[in-house]
Amino acid sequence: MDKTIDTRPSIALRRFAAAVALLGWAALALQLVLSIGLATSGGRPAAWGVFMYLGYFTILTNLLVALALTAAATTSQAGLWRFFRRAGVASAIAANITVVGLVYFFVLRHIWNPQGLLWLADVLLHYAMPLLFLAYWWFAVPAGGLRWGDILSWWIYPLGYLAYALVRGAVAGVYPYPFIDVGALGYGRTAINAAGVTLGFSLVAALLVAIGRSKPIPKKV
Questions:
Q1: Per-residue model confidence as pLDDT tens digits over 156-187
Q2: 130, 63, 60: which is closest to 99 by C-alpha?
Q3: For the whole model, what pTM was predicted?
Q4: Is the distance from CB of 111 to CB of 178 less than 8 angstroms?
Q5: Up-side HSE of residue 62: CA atoms within 13 Å toward CB?
């Protein structure tokens, strides 16, 4: 059964979570400003920049990371924060943000060359936040109660995102990632690519479950 992180992690870990949460929110805000700027500089309205911003798995997953870290940092026992402190939820987010980093590094980083603030946002969202959240997960999340069957429920978010991205693409004619660009690849190739990413996610999730079941219980400091 999914477990709730022991009300709140230790004071030291809560401070770490707060610092990383602030970094995550700052990175998300920076990317939003840049997305709006790119839209307006290209003759599009600001709303188009927001629309494009909200289409990326990277952005949506980093939002979940920031929420989970904020939940860990707060003393509130409100339902939303308790939900994000659950070990299964935090572990699912860890699996997804790991996929963000891996897919970007191995598949996407070669297709563009960001400069300046775009480079900074790129590094924060694709490299820094995945690594920092995995560090938080290792030290703060009591994942010993994870079960192999939990992976099935973890699929809901990435598969839901895929459906969301495809619907957006069919309506607006733009797809966030080239490997799911139905207009260029067709549905057959897109389905194969999506299956490959899903398999990769499943392997990452299985690794986290295995590690979680064996790692020591976080200590209060």
A1: 999 999 999 999 999 999 999 999 999 999 99
A2: 130
A3: 0.93
A4: yes
A5: 33
